[in-house]
Amino acid sequence: MQTIELVNLDAIGEARRQIEICNACRYCESYCAVFPAVHSKRAYSDGDIQQLSNLCHNCRGCYYACQYTAPHEFGLNLPKALAEVRQESWQNHTQPSVIATVFHRSGAALSLFVVLAAALLVWLIQAAPKSSGEGFYSLMSHNAMVVLFVPAFTLPILLILLSLRGYWRTIGGESIRWRHVVGAFGSIAKMKNLSGGHGDGCNFEAEDAFSNRRRLYHQATMYGFLLCFAATSVATLMHYGLDMQAPYGFFSLPKLFGISGGVLLSIGTLGLASLKLKADRGLADARVWGGEMAFVLLLFVVSTSGLALYFLRETSLLDELLALHLGAVLAFFLLMPFSKMVHGFFRLAALIRDEQCKA
């Protein structure tokens, strides 16, 4: 089967062993979406294990509630087991997978290199004869931005869609109905699976103490990103559809969406990075800690440099800030298929498949 070729059999085998013990115990039945899905089956294919791994949000509540963790002979550590399968399901369905592997092992170095290279490219374009545009477009023309960023966005999205197609086949996905999508997006919008089953939160950073901070930081990051994307989309519509040229005023939709989104994104990513520093690495895939942290910090640089660019646009720092911001955005787009950004797409697919299985 395709699954056997794509994901390490040792990781899948260990996750299956632990899931079978969980299915016999059933103590954690109401904790998150993973356990009802586990309890709905008696045997688990490799695709089932990958789907379950992407349902897991690594909240760790099951670990601290479990009576079979080490030093018990069963030695359960389900968050870690599922994290290792989940990681491999992301990076090995992405092509070329070698880039994903490098990112997750040396994410900080790769991100820094791509950001600096992209910033240098933007700076060289800025150094060309200036255009007659206003605001930022006096430094870099609108057409130059389109030529640079449209391929940098569309090609990574295409790679993500191709990887999702392979993953969907692996987990046995069926024809998608509207109700499946609505149910999955409902879970994502509320971050339902980070609520600890009873709304008290998860145990990510505080061991057996409950906290909703991770849930709130995730929501700030997600909604901040969506607002920034909305700002770009609305500005594109205004530019091409309504012939309303940038720059736009503070109370325009692009600015309101962009500034509020940037603030939420900066708060969310900084909060997630701080929680990640406190969390026990032994309950996750420790091999890729650096890559995950690099992705969070790259998002932070994108949002914070964008805010700085807006508020310091009248200063002598404009050229450098524009190069840094556009370089960070370009790096984010280029690395998107190989970074943890894809976890959102894979988790959505896993949640849709979960809705199908419930039907």
Automatic annotation (TrEMBL):
InterPro entries in the record: Citrate_utilization_prot_B, NarG-like_sf
Keyword set, alphabetical order: Membrane, Transmembrane, Transmembrane helix
UniProt KW Transmembrane keyword: yes
TM segment ranges: 107-125, 145-168, 220-242, 248-273, 294-312, 324-346
The keyword Lipid biosynthesis is assigned to this record: no
NCBIfam families on file: CitB
Protein name: Tricarballylate utilization protein B
Species assigned in the record: Marinobacterium zhoushanense
Gene: citB
